[in-house]
Each structure stands twice: as C-alpha cells, then as structure tokens.
Amino acid sequence: MKRFAVAAGVIAAGGAILAGVLVATTGGGSDGDFRGSRPPARVELPDFTLRDFRGPSVQSRDTRGKAVLVTFLESKCTESCPIVASQVARGLRLLQPDERSRVVALAISTHPGDDTPASVRTFLRRHRAEQALHYLVGTEAELRPVWRAFQVLPALDTGDPNLHSVPVRIFDPDGVWVSTLHTGADLTPANLRHDVLEALS
Fold it and tell me: Fewest CB atoms within 10 A around its CB: which of 84, 119, 167, 182?
C-alpha cells in the first residue's frame, strides 16, 4: 500500500510539472520533429551550480551554446536508473565527434546520502556511462532548490531508491526545453541521438 501511495505521489508530481510548464512562460521553443514528448510552453534550463562527483563545479549557465541532456538518478537504483544511464551513454556514442562536442549530459542526484563518489563511480562504470555523464551531487540543501526548479520528485523524499522522477530532458543551445524521453516509452539510443540532433539544428 505504501508503494502505491508513493507511486501516486510520483504521478501527482508529474501533473505538477505539467502545470508548471503551462504557466512558466509563453512562446515556443525550437521547431523540430522530436520523437520525445514536447513541453507545451517555452521553459528554460534553470540556473544552478552543483559539483560533478569527480570534484569540479558545473554551472548550468556555462552550457549555453550546447544541447543539454538532464536526467535524475540514484546510484542505488536497480530499476529505471541503470536503463537510463545505459541508453543515454549508447545514444551519445552514436553521435559523430563534432556533434558530441556540442552536447553536455548531466545526471542530477536524487539522494545525497546514497550518491557518494564511490557509489556513483561504481554505478557509472557498471553501466558504461562514466565517460558520458556528468553526475552532479551535493548536500540536500544544495540539491533541493534544483529539484524544485525542475519540479521532480527525489528518491530522498520517497525513501525508495527505485521510486523517483527519472525523465531525460533535452534543452537546445539557447537553453530551451524541447523534448523529454521516458524509460519504457520513447527512450532509445536512436531516439536520443535524433532529438539531440534536432535540438542542435
């Protein structure tokens, strides 16, 4: 029963995301033939600074001029997260070197206690994503404003590493959200490559 209640919370959070999108701003993003779902309004990449698990800081404002992939992971997750990390890494490997140089892929921690550098490194290596993803970590105080800005439900709040928001959102070089790919629906390496190239065009 508890798991169903939390799942309902995830669905409710999804509704909140949609509502937030609808009221965020007006106007459209890039005009492209995306395979992922399109946000219904112009929403821009939030401004944030977090640490890559390797140590360096990553600022979202520094990604302007590149396509940006953002997803939300938990290194102890054994269900959706391994699929997402693997599919994203495989999709990025389909890009030509000059295309790949114009893309930044970010995974934001949904559980600061679980996502230690050692745990993240093991997770990324296991799923062949260490070279593909900047896995961003921080304290709860640092991460919670980011979760709120993206309107995602973190694993920290559900108490279950397998239960949290895990979309793959794609932002164009102007920082506009243009597509979302979902595990079990439209997240495939081919679709990810396609939507990244659409975002870059």
Answer: 182
